Structure prediction request, 397 residues.
Amino acid sequence: MHIVTEMKQKRAALIGDVRKIQEASVGGVLSADSLAKIAAIEADISNLEKSAEIAERNEKREAELRAVPENRIAGNADDKESRAKKHIEDFRNFLVRGERRDLSADTASEGGNIVAPQQFVAEVLKKMDDLVFMRELATKYTLNSFANLGVPTITADPADADWTTEVAAVSNDTALNFGKRTMAPNMLTKGIKVSIKLLEVATLPAEQIVADRLAYKFAIAQEKAFLTGSGSGQPLGVFTASASGISTGRDVSTGNTSTAFTFDGLTEAQMSIKQQYRANGSWLLHRDAVKMARKIKTGISGDTTYIWQPSTQLGQPDTLLGRPVFESEYVPNTFTSGLYVGLFGDFSKYWIVDQLPYTVQRLVELYAGTNQVGFIGRMSSDGAPVDELAFARVKLG
Prediction:
């Protein structure tokens, strides 16, 4: 049996054990012994979740190492391969020893900036996609210049088509309305420190070490912005109420209490979205909300079915009301009246625009005292919802 599948099946079994303890309680009140057992089981569940995530990420990385990188340098096949290898080798020398050779770069203090090779940029973006679920599900565009991207947004649906005779005049629609938000990628900068010895003797190529760490740093900032960003000098987050993204008209609180969402409330949110979006929809929750969702039953008389179903298959997320669940620490998790605590939507209707070139600056002297080299990566990116009808925010009553 595959190791990740085995861990997920063990996790599902433990979740079942927690449910059995809850169901055996009197009136839902747990004894001190039962609480202690659940706490121990919850710790095991958390460890299995993290272990499975790490194992899946490692498998993806190993698959990338086995793949042949795409070369996009003009010329015949042999020439492209030769020039691509030389470019990445020059870049590696720059990272390890600061040698600039034929790399296109601007002069800067403490080492200078260089435009990273296409293979390196692709690897950083791919790793960010793996780390940030929003990047994995969203619609992504890459601009190779400093141009902006105008995004049409639907602000009102068209009216229904009319039944007419063959020669009748056609009535033009007056309901459909489009807005527009300009995607103007904003600068995102992150720095890392790497041991000089690690760069010189590591089994992995230097560019992979740097790519891994920069991708992680960029991923944290982007995930937070895609969820709660203000839209001013940064992406517009899905939990930020805005006429340019998801307005308050897409907030759903019906059925929820002032301190918790309910089966009815989650159903209201899910069913507020039309079928064509709902079929591709996913839930987005904080781990505190996940914990709450795991305990909810349908509430139908005599039915003890939980609306949360743990995944037992490799690469498949848990489901809530039949749709995948994604978890983020940046989802609001203050369970107080009038606040957001989750979201359901079709995340392909969130657009992300990355802008090239991607540059790396090498800091030669700043960390010399600790035998380290600093690297600063710079990229430009923007993101925003483009169709608010594809989303519903879960709000407490």
